[in-house]
Design brief:
Blueprint lengths: L2 E7 L7 H17 L3 E4 L6 H10 L1 E4 L10 E4 L6 H9 L3 E4 L3 H15 L3 E5 L5 H7 L8 E4 L2 H6 L8 E5 L5 H14 L13 H13 L5 E5 L5 H12 L4 E4 L15 E6 L5 H12 L2 E7 L15
Parallel strand pairs: 1-11, 1-12, 2-3, 2-4, 4-5, 6-7, 6-8, 9-10, 9-11
Helix pairs in contact: 4-5, 8-9
């Protein structure tokens, strides 16, 4: 007789509107123009999605010079710098923009503040493609600064403190950025920020959901790839609250032994993880356990972003 395990599914979980839009753009471009279609960087950070798109004819590249001249190129959901756009033009490429509209909003803010002569402080993770793309909206490197933590603020040496603005990486949460923003405002009283938070609605919703999900759970499983900022953060939140958590990218490699002596677990998925992975994970658990499933009450997301002309 199988042991019983109770699974609660987070709501919301999985794909956000920006990820859904980016994947659809690649699929529709392949339908219209045929394979291969080149994509600058992984269109979203999920290995299952990327492998699926590769099978359909997408080729993912980091350097624009690796794309044959005259080809179509899709910019990933994370956005790209002005330099990348210039290279596309120099190499006679035909760009199709899958940048998440929420990231595009931040780009416009940066461009607008830069035109006013402002220094731009970016709150985000070094090396993340969204951060590179956003800071790359400004030509002069001396006009942009990256802040990852409170300690970085102490290191800032800005001469003209009258004109300073900040923006944030969209896949951070309000909790993550609040202390940093407060400290920036203390050090630079004249600093200005966006009228509305740059935090992605989906990032915040999934983080709020996991905080509710962890109540009385012995384990939290986050479905998502390790290079996904928002997925990794979900696992971190559970750990910070004292609940064992694991990030699972490849369901086939998931070790069922972690469920030994567990009776109540929670499952969620990052904003770039498809629901099929959650279903496959539950199927795998059912091999060894009698599974009881319920879904928590959560915010219903109904945001849809329009597709560009392809």
């Amino acid at each position: 007789m199988k042991k019983e395990i109770h699974i609660t599914l987070a709501e919301p979980r999985g794909f956000c509107a920006g990820v859904d839009r980016a994947i659809t753009i690649v699929e529709k471009t392949l339908e219209k123009y045929g394979a291969p279609i080149y994509v600058r960087h992984e269109v979203v950070h999920n290995e299952f999605v990327i492998e699926d798109l590769k099978r359909k004819g997408a080729i993912f590249v980091e350097d624009m010079k690796d794309i044959p001249k005259g080809s179509h190129v899709i910019y990933s959901a994370h956005g790209v710098s002005k330099l990348v756009r210039k290279k596309a033009s120099d190499f006679n490429l035909v760009p199709i923009d899958a940048t998440c509209p929420l990231v595009t909003k931040v780009h416009k803010e940066v461009i607008q503040q830069n035109k006013k002569g402002h220094i731009i402080i970016m709150i985000g993770h070094e090396g993340h493609p969204e951060v590179d793309g956003t800071m790359g909206q400004v030509d002069d490197n001396d006009k942009t600064f990256l802040v990852q933590n409170l300690g970085d603020i102490d290191k800032l040496r800005i001469k003209n403190t009258e004109k300073i603005s900040y923006v944030t990486q969209t896949t951070l949460s309000i909790d993550e950025t609040k202390e940093i923003i407060d400290k920036l405002k203390t050090k630079y009283p004249n600093i200005s920020g966006p009228n509305k938070s740059d935090i992605c609605y989906a990032t915040q919703n999934r983080q709020d959901a996991i905080k509710s999900l962890i109540t009385d759970k012995e384990l939290i499983i986050v479905v998502g790839s390790s290079n996904s900022s928002n997925s990794s953060r979900l696992a971190e939140i559970a750990k910070q609250e004292g609940v064992e958590s694991v990030l699972v990218g490849n369901i086939e490699n998931f070790d069922l032994s972690i469920l030994l002596n567990k009776k109540k677990i929670g499952i969620t998925a990052g904003a770039s993880a498809p629901e099929i992975l959650v279903k496959n994970l539950i199927k795998k658990i059912k091999r060894n356990y009698d599974v009881l499933i319920d879904e928590m009450n959560g915010i219903e997301e109904n945001i849809i972003f329009k597709l560009p002309n392809i």
